[in-house]
Design brief:
- The chain is an all-alpha fold.
- The protein has a domain of about 25 residues.
- It has two helices and no strands.
- The longest helix has about 30 residues.
């Protein structure tokens, strides 16, 4: 496992400490790893959804000119 040193503002450090002190997480490291995992899952899910929308658009047939009604 790689090591990453992160500096956070005092306010966030206090929040992380509260999450670990109250037993939500065993350590700050565990908490941050969980946050990154969730962020990665959300990013990948959004990326898949966007890719599917593009593919759906490409498969929907020929395009038609767009008009803003100014004609």
């Amino acid at each position: 496992m790689a090591t990453l040193q992160v500096s956070v503002p005092d306010e966030l450090h206090a929040y992380i400490d509260r999450r670990t002190v109250h037993g939500d997480y065993a350590s700050a490291e565990e908490y941050l790893i969980e946050l990154v995992r969730k962020d990665r899952e959300r990013y990948e899910s959004h990326h898949r959804a966007l890719r599917q929308k593009v593919l759906d658009g490409m498969d929907s047939g020929p395009g038609t000119p767009w008009s803003d009604g100014a004609e």
